[in-house]
Amino acid sequence: MANPGDCCVKVALRIRPQMAKEKIEGCHVCTLVAPGEPQVLLGKDKAFTYDFVFDVDSEQQSIYQACVYKLIEGCFEGYNATVFAYGQTGSGKTYTMGTGFDVSLGQQEQGIIPRAVHQLFQGIQSSKVRAQEAGVQPPEFKVSAQFLELYNEEILDLFDGTRDPESRCRKSSIKIHEDAGGSIYTTGVTSRLVQSEEELLQCLKLGALSRTTASTQMNAQSSRSHAIFTIHLCQMRVCQQPQMNGGGEEMNGVDSTPIAQPEFETLMANRTLMIACVSPSDRDFMKTLNTLKYANRARNIKNKVVGEPRQDQPADQRPACRDSPTSDGADGV
């Protein structure tokens, strides 16, 4: 029997539209979404059910509202949230996450990370307004970001201005640790403090450009690396020692012994949403099938959801928490 605090990884499937080239080359659509059900049929007899299924005509806003919005809301209650995209090259991962920075895209086509950043700062402003209306001191928030790239089981800091392409040949000094309560944190990572939505998005853009340049110079294929953008939210008023981190895969805590696990799996924690991106074309049938199978297995993964304590709550009403005495604080938010 699962524990009440356990939460399965939520899985969303997104099927991108066919590209013009695929239509010209005569590719046929091999996916069919069941009406009113989160189920997709691949070919004639392979059916898969997920928590959410978005067909080729789904818009960015509807996807965000359905499966990401509440995760960001939870960050203000002290819960960590992870959103990551998985799929073959060209399946729409970058578009879905919103890290392509295509100037031709309008506001309606913004991806998950820009929307999450906007919601985060809207939430901060709303908290201050509510406090003022209630006649109490407005809360103070600190927002910081980290940007990591995982390449061949090595962790690279995309905010490290001193890093050069040759540094890929040297072992990274960044370490992943787990504290006594099971919380994951890193050491040796650059953390940038930001004051606005625009500043945070600029950090994301510069880090992404750094990753692209390094990958070109070192001929690193996208399928062999992962980018993790982490946003850390700290409400200073309710937490004398910052304990409330939100919107990322990992958080800082007390020193502990490094753990020996694959880094990408280790950095995922608490509430997690996987967005499996696939092509609808029959020429990608086997790659799409592999993605669907992997996504199906991911639904069986359980996270232990534990909220960070809010200091304005009575002690007996606070959720069980993991100690996190430091405040620092990832392709996810």
Account of the protein in words:
With 333 residues, the chain is an alpha+beta fold. It folds into 2 domains: 1-111 and 267-309, Kinesin motor domain (Kinesin); 140-236, Kinesin (3-Layer(aba) Sandwich), CATH 3.40.850. The chain has 8 helices and 15 strands. It has helices at residues 20-24, 60-67, 69-75, 93-97, 112-133, 197-218, 263-266, 285-298; strands spanning 6-8, 10-15, 31-33, 39-42, 46-49, 52-54, 81-86, 141-151, 154-157, 175-178, 184-187, 192-194, 225-235, 271-278, 302-304. A 4-stranded parallel sheet has the order 6-2-14-7, sandwiched between helices. Strands 8, 9, 12 and 13 form a 4-stranded antiparallel sheet that branches. Strand 8 (141-151) and strand 9 form a beta hairpin. The longest helix has 22 residues, at 112-133. The chain is globular. Mean pLDDT is 79; it is low at 238-262, 264-269 and 310-331. Keywords: ATP-binding, Cytoplasm, Cytoskeleton, Motor protein, Nucleotide-binding. It is found in: Cytoplasm, Cytoskeleton. Residues 8-333 form the Kinesin motor domain. ATP binds at residues 87-94. It holds the Pfam family Kinesin.
